[in-house]
Amino acid sequence: VFGKFTNDINGATVNGGNIIINNSQTITISPDNLYQYTYDQIMLPLGKAYMGNFIDVQIKGSNSVDSLSRKLYIPKPIFLYNLYKSISTISNNTSYNLSWNPDLQNMFGKVLIQVDYYSGLSINHNPGNPKSVQGLVYTASDDGSFIIPAKDLERFPVSSYISISISRATDNSWPTGRSHIEYIAVTSAYSSPILIQN
Asked: Which residues pair with 54 in a beta bridge?
């Protein structure tokens, strides 16, 4: 969990007071006016339980930020059904059908799909591979399926490695007496390195 409150006039990061989640979890501010919380092994099941559900968020407020209580939706976790292998391979001359679990409550109804080149791993595997290859970015319906066209995958040379990621988000903004509060929740999934073959 990461967040901050920003003054709309001068852009300064300000203290918004404690943030309380579901009346039980308190996130305090750090000395640099940032909010950061990492779920350790004990608290991880609680963090996972929030995903795909609405949570109650209270902002206690301060001299700079008004207090506020809202219900917020945390997107479902994403599972890449056909990419959870230690090392996957795909062809750069065949379209690839990517599949995942959709989230019917996704407020935008969209996911962001990215295909990125692993430079170091690719060159280590084959010194003839290029230092960089421009990645692919798609915005697709969150319906659980998307085809990456073969013509796009052609840019990645045989013997190189790529990764595929999918993200979905919620974005809520509320005006207050002195500013506005914006809340963004993102869930993402990343594949293991994928070897490009013919």
From this structure: 73
pLDDT of amino acid 178: 65
Burial pattern 145-176, b for ≥16 Cβ within 10 A else e, equals ebebeeeebebbeeebbbbbbbbbbbeeeeee
Q: Which residue has the tokens 């996130």?
A: 27
DSSP 8-class letter at 78? -
- Give the model's pLDDT for residue 162: 96
DSSP SS3 for 139: strand
Burial status of residue 90 (CB atoms within 10 A of its CB: 0-12, 13-18, 19 or more) = buried
Query: Is 131's pLDDT higher than 80?
Result: yes
- Give residue 137's identity as a one-letter amino acid code: V
The CA distance from 68 to 65, in Å, is 9
Tokens 């968020």 correspond to 57
- 69 Cβ partners below 8 Å, 6+ apart? 56, 57, 58, 59
Q: Residue 84 pLDDT more than 70?
A: no
Give the helix ranges, DSSP H, for 99-175. 119-125, 150-153
Give the pair of three-digit tokens for residue 143: 């319906």
